[in-house]
Amino acid sequence: METAITLIGLALLAIVVAALLGFVAWLRTADLGRRVMQLESDIASLRRSQVPPARAEGSAASSHAREEPSAEKQKPNEEPDTGSASVSPASPPPTAFPPFLAPDRAPLTPADRARARVPAMAAASVSAQDTAMRENGTEGNAGAGGSSFEMRFGANWTVWIGGLALVLGGIFLVRYSIEAGLLPPIVRVLAGGVFAALLIGLGEWRRRRTAEDDPAEAGDARAYIPGILTLAGITSAFASAYAAHALYGLIGPAAAFVLLGAVALLTLAASLLHGPAVASVGLVASYAVPFLVSSDEPALAPVVFYGLFVTLATYAVARIRRWRWLAIAGAACAVAWAHVLSALGVPADAGYLAIYDIGALALAGFFFVVNLYPRNPETEEVKPDWMVSAILAAHALPALYLLQIDAFGTVSVATLFIVMAALLVMASEWPAVAAGALAAAVLGAFAHLTFEVPIAPASFAPDIASDPVIASALLNPRTTAHLHFGLAIGLLLGVAGLVGTWRSAGRWALAAAGTAGPLGVFAVSYLRTDTAGLETAFGLSALALAAAFAGVTAFFETRLPRLSFTRDLAVSAYAIATIAALVTGMAILLHEGWLVIGLALLTSGIAWVETRKPSPVLRWLAVAVAAGCCLFIADDPTIAGAALGTTPIFNWLLYGYGVPTIAFAATAWLLARRDRDLPQAIFEALTIVFALATVAMQIHHLMNGGDMRASADTLAEGSLHTLLALAAAIGLQKLQGRAGGRVFDIASMLASFVGFAMIALVNLIVLNPMASGEEIGTNALFNVLIPAYLLPAVMLATLVWQARGKRPKAYVTSAAVLSLVMLFAWVTLEVRALFHRPRLDWGLTGDGELYTYSAVWLVLGIALLIAGVFTRSRSVRLASAAVVALVVVKVFLIDMGSLTGIWRAVSFIGLGFVLIGIGALYQRLLRAAPKPPPETRDEKPA
């Protein structure tokens, strides 16, 4: 198993190193190619400008001969006369860090001038090699890319792979000596040290020899041999120093500390001499050494110091060479190292883990914050560095591991407070990383939540809530210790937030941490504590906290200069915290659905604050609070659960839905005073939804005797919901015409579509009393058919009247057709109810009922015709014609065969008189209509 793990580690390391080497080689080769092309272009331009065209051919050879000795005679201290400035491959990029990090440019030294000549000499060397290739007949291959691959493979890849082979060979040699027991431990360590020194010395000798013999090769991108040898030696030195203590116990922690520090300094020196590739690959590979050289009884202390010193070396190299990417990579490795150490740690190692957690955060704070940004809390405009803030937060979170390992002992608790204090101090003194204060608040709240709860990785269950140990610990903490622990965290966050808000430009984050932190700790204390008999104490504590926040808000509002950076955000944070604490106290003291009501009122408070201190953050914060209110209602739509009762109308549904409706309407109105943006539109939509939900929930409560779990499967309740949707469509369309805004328009359309769907599916099909057999009542006229069919028909007609010219034609036509269908259904079902009630699906249809259908439909057709005439609506007159045509079809197809005796005669006689009357009415209308002018009158006979 151990061999397999080792092979996997070696394979991963080889892949990473090979990828890095290939990428670096590609970068350097591409850079060299660009430089050669630029130099050739410059030389060609100079020759064209200095040599006359007539003498260009004859003087080229002599000019070239004269240029070579002049280059040899040029003194080292003289600057070359080049067309463009060149930079050494080892020189750092000038824009890797912010501008204020760039040191003042010093005069060039002789060594700098010598390095500046390297690219030109390297270009000449490459040009000479290309000439030789052409002379040997390889020009065609070069053009095809064959010689380029050959050069890369022979000059670059073989060197890198050879260096990797040296590193792995040294590691396998050490492993083989351990497994075979060939050499005693001290000899193995000394042999590793000698091997490391030999490689480092050989690399330095090669570097100096190359620089003296051929400066062009020293600057050539292909000259990796010195760096590779040094890299192999550094890795072997790390492995030997680590093995001397962790594997064999030949040296103690102090000696290991010194040796690892010396190797880290050697790595730093090597990176300065050999450039970024050697530094980055060497330092990244150094993190993998402990995984490749293992022991049956590993000690945590040297691993801790090893990780700190490797991190220190990484940051130092990144700072000197200004490689921000290397610093970020080192920070990621340091955080990953913290997770590894926590997984290996035991309670006895708490001290070492604390050293690592504090040390890693200190290193990150120094190199990413103290060393980069000026300490100036009064700076007014500071751009936040979110990357650095995230790095600091990531370094702080491993303190939670330590709390679990140490079981919230003195060491772990002290480490937690040191880490939190460090984040708060950096946020106050260096405003660019003010967001770190938010991480401190999250860290403190989560530490308080997990107080004495075994949630270390070994205790995780697939579902934490199902773990009886965790569930028991969450509900039964040591109350006094838990409260004291939370009080200390809350005081630290509150005081730091107060001081930072007063004196630091990062006050926005410090105010957020100083308010959200204490509120979060209070919430955790309340949720985890057995509050039997303590409800009043917690409620009064929340009110006291609200009073404290209110006092701080008033103090900063009057004393903090108005031009202070992010002043309004800080004041708003304390004002919002005041409202939140007040609502929390009210919810604790009053119980029931007051939490929902409090959250809804909180949105109005935030909107009021926003009118005084405009901020997009506050508008979206109000949306977030409203979302919390909606989540609580979704969890318990009855608001008060069993305490809802059976009292109609005046119950918790009215308060739990009605008050949020009013609060959201007030919030939308307050936000609209400044801007009608997306948050304001969201509150308009919430107002509509909660208003409709209030009525809908009251309907369900009323129709089911207070049983909110009953299904809405009656025609009466379904009809009321249909009427609600149609009423909403009419009302919202009216509001849209007065107030404007897309929200009312969209809501009106949605409500009408819902109403149309309910009519088609519920009223006409599913809950139709002819199909469901539901009783409609004993009264023939005043029964459930009126709200189920007549009132929807009337409301649809109103919607049609209101939507003409404002809505699409298809929308108006659909509403009109549904209105006629519902009116016809009501008339038909009322006739059925006249003969068969309370159930319409019972009994046979007699002659009198069949005749009554015809008579009533004729009356309906005549009524529609008269209405169409008076309203001058062609659509209504066409509807009348459709009803009359239906009566004609019924009389000739049904009544002729079904009716007998007098009923058949009366049916036809009545139909005849009605049709003649309709004809006479139309003839009168035609005579009364104005005639067209003579010149436009059709002369043809009818």
TrEMBL record:
Residues annotated as transmembrane: 6-27, 157-176, 182-202, 223-244, 250-270, 277-293, 299-318, 325-346, 352-373, 385-401, 407-425, 432-451, 481-501, 508-526, 538-557, 569-588, 594-610, 617-634, 654-672, 681-703, 715-732, 744-768, 780-801, 810-831, 851-871, 878-896, 902-922
Bias type Basic and acidic residues, positions: 64-78
Region (Disordered): 46-104, 119-144
UniProt biased composition (Low complexity): 119-131
Record-linked InterPro entries: DUF2339_TM, UCP035905_mem
Pro residues: compositionally biased ranges: 90-101
Pfam families reported for this sequence: DUF2339 (PF10101)
Keyword annotations from UniProtKB, A to Z: Membrane, Transmembrane, Transmembrane helix
Name the record gives this protein: Putative membrane protein
